[in-house]
């Protein structure tokens, strides 16, 4: 056993690589290793109790010696190996790790952009309440209680006879009452309707109302403002069409439709027939001006109710309106800024 021990110490002294040490481990402690065989092939039955004890003790010492020294050699070989590895250089051209920042909701971004555009044309930005009286939401817009136009909007009625505003038009008379004529303003805001929900209908969506009241305002002014708006928002030529539309609070009334930017006008789940009703508009009905205490013989005006959510869909190519309120981070992340 003493010979084996010296031989092992000599072998380990000559080992350079982890593989050398591994070979030594197999040679001594492997299944057919020297130490293993010595233990296995000794016929203990031929030994007296005392001899057994002495021999067994020595054998255990030898095993412990081998195990310990081999383990130490493995460690030493690993470390000298590590020291030989080339040092990694600092590469300043490597891309850094991205950090996700919070981001504005795409509807907010679109709204801020609209506010910027209209402020550039001298419009005031105002915000009205979400819970509205029947008067401002319908009555003052020339939609009396028995008017069939009330059925055009599926309204959420509250138990106190107030409504969740069905359109931003509800802000028109509020603003005109307060500021009088002449006036230029937009009212972006949330609207609520009791809708059957699908890819293009939601119970909660955004509009951006606009009102201009001044002397000699005509359809020409309306069209000029719409053109400026569209060219600033899309920054490219977009196809639009103007057709007559009925709304009790304008006369004449129009629908300004945008050729769908998702399907290119072919027709899809978002637009239906290739056109998106984007900006209903018209000249303010004289009765609405009267409700606002403005003399329709002296002043005239135009109004429009831009579909802000629809605009965001067109701008960003969002096919399904339900994504906006989904709370799905995978959707919102696409609008996030990385640093
Ligand atoms: N408030 C209407 C709606 O939500 C849209 C609308 C039509 C607004 C014509 C206007 C307008 O200001 O002039 O259906």
Overview of this structure, please?
The protein is of the alpha+beta class and 339 residues long. The chain has helices spanning 2-14, 18-29, 34-41, 49-84, 106-120, 134-137, 171-179, 219-234, 286-291, 308-316, 329-332, and strands at 124-125, 131-132, 163-164, 183-192, 204-214, 240-244, 250-259, 275-284, 300-307. The strands form two sheets. It has a seven-stranded mixed β-sheet with strand order 1-4-5-9-8-7-6, sandwiched between helices. A hairpin with a 5-residue loop joins strand 6 and strand 7 (250-259). The two termini are 67 Å apart. The relative contact order is 0.11. The structure holds 3,4-dihydroxyphenylalanine.
Keywords:
single chain; 339 residues; alpha+beta; 7-stranded mixed beta sheet; 39% helix; 18% strand; binds 3,4-dihydroxyphenylalanine
């Amino acid at each position: 056993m003493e010979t084996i021990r010296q031989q092992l110490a000599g072998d380990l002294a000559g080992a350079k690589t982890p593989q050398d040490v591994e070979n030594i481990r197999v040679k001594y402690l492997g299944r057919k290793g020297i130490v293993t065989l010595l233990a296995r092939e000794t016929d203990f039955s031929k030994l007296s109790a005392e001899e057994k004890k002495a021999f067994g003790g020595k054998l255990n010492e030898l095993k412990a010696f081998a195990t310990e020294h081999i383990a130490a050699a493995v460690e030493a070989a690993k470390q000298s190996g590590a020291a030989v590895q080339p040092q990694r250089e600092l590469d300043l051209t490597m891309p850094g790790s991205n950090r996700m920042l919070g981001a504005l909701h795409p509807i907010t971004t679109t709204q801020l952009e609209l506010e910027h555009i209209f402020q550039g044309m001298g419009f005031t930005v105002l915000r009205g309440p979400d819970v509205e009286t029947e008067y401002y939401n319908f009555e003052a817009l020339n939609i009396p209680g028995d008017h069939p136009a009330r059925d055009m909007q599926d309204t959420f009625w509250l138990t106190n006879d107030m409504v969740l505003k069905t359109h931003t038009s509800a802000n028109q008379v509020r603003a005109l009452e307060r500021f009088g004529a002449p006036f230029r303003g937009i009212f972006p805001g949330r609207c609520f309707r009791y809708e059957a929900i699908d890819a293009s209908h939601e119970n909660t969506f955004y509009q951006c109302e606009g009102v201009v009241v001044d002397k000699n305002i005509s359809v020409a002014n309306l069209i000029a403002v719409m053109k400026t708006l569209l060219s600033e928002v899309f920054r490219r030529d977009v196809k639009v069409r103007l057709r007559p539309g009925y709304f009790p609070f304008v006369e004449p009334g129009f629908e300004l439709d945008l050729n769908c930017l998702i399907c290119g006008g072919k027709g899809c789940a978002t637009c239906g027939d290739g056109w998106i009703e984007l900006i209903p508009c018209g000249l303010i009905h004289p009765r609405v001006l009267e409700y606002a205490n403005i003399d329709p013989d002296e002043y005239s005006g135009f109004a429009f109710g831009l579909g802000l959510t629809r605009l965001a869909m067109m701008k960003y190519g969002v096919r399904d309106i339900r994504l906006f309120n989904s709370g799905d981070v995978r959707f919102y992340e696409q609008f996030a800024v990385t640093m």
